[in-house]
Design a protein that fits this description.
By secondary structure, this protein is of the alpha/beta class. Strands 5-4-3-6-7 form a five-stranded parallel sheet, with helices on both faces. A two-stranded antiparallel sheet has the order 1-2. Strand 4, helix 5 and strand 5 form a beta-alpha-beta unit. About 25% of the residues are buried.
């Protein structure tokens, strides 16, 4: 997943940060990267995600967002935060929409997420932040979402603020997360989720 892209104004080169989920014996994440030197040149083609254009459209970028991600699914969320941070710094006002973020991460990945989350928080872009680390009790990020107090806040964002939802996770986590949102919304689930629910499964 691309987490950041910026252009060097002196060389006109584009620097791309990517987040890679390592899969044992994976052709790229394991074999290719293991055989490549640090300064290896890679030719690549960017393929936009199914949710990319929808999330970047002006109408959605100006509304609150609830983002739920696990593992490498944080990559697109980080990219979204980068865009909102850039917009906030350019406009430098307090009118930017807030993001509620729910992350399920391995403890070693939390430090990777920390800088961007701290910067977004400093700019007032995040109004809810919950990070669930991998644990022996098997508590998942969607379990946090189902907490009664948190669920009330999420319902308010969806029904009163017309927030969009972006879920980027593995198949099982995505399915469970969707079930939690349907439970939170009750009879309003069908209408709200058809209009505002964006899911990307990896």
């Amino acid at each position: 997943s691309i987490t950041k892209a910026s252009r060097n104004l002196k060389t006109n080169n584009i620097l791309v940060d990517i987040m890679i989920k390592k899969i044992s014996d994976g052709r790229f994440s394991d074999i290719f990267l293991s055989d490549s030197s640090e300064l290896a040149t890679i030719k690549y083609r960017i393929v936009d995600s199914v949710a990319g254009a929808t999330l970047r459209c002006r109408e959605r970028s100006q509304k609150p967002l609830i983002a739920v991600a696990t593992g490498a699914g944080f990559g697109p969320v980080r990219c979204l935060l980068e865009r909102r941070i850039a917009a906030a710094l350019e406009l430098w006002d307090q009118s930017h929409p807030r993001v509620a973020i729910f992350l399920g991460l391995h403890p070693s990945d939390v430090q990777l997420a920390k800088p961007i989350l701290e910067e977004a928080s400093r700019l007032g872009l995040i109004d809810m932040l919950y990070v669930v680390e991998s644990n022996e009790q098997k508590l998942r990020v969607y379990d946090k979402l189902a907490d009664e107090v948190i669920a009330q806040k999420v319902r308010h964002k969806l029904t009163q603020q017309q927030a969009s939802v972006f879920v980027c996770a593995g198949e099982a986590a995505a399915k469970s997360t969707k079930g939690v949102f349907e439970s939170i919304l009750g009879i309003e689930a069908s209408k709200i989720m058809s209009d505002h629910y964006i899911e990307e499964v990896f």
